[in-house]
Amino acid sequence: MPKHTVAVIGAGKIGELVLSGLLRSGWPASRLLVTARRAARGAELAERYGVTVVENTEAVTRADILAIAVKPQDAATLLDEVGGKIPADKLVVSLCAGLPTSFFAARLPEGTPVVRVMTNTPALVDQAMTAISAGPHANGEHLAIAEEMFKPLGATLRVPESQQDAVTALSGSGPAYFYLLVEAMIDAGILLGLPRQVAHELIVQTAIGSSVMLRDSGEHPVKLREAVTSPAGTTIAAIHELEKHGVRAALLGALEAARDRAREIADQAR
Question: What is the pTM (predicted TM-score) of this model?
Answer without folding.
Answer: 0.90
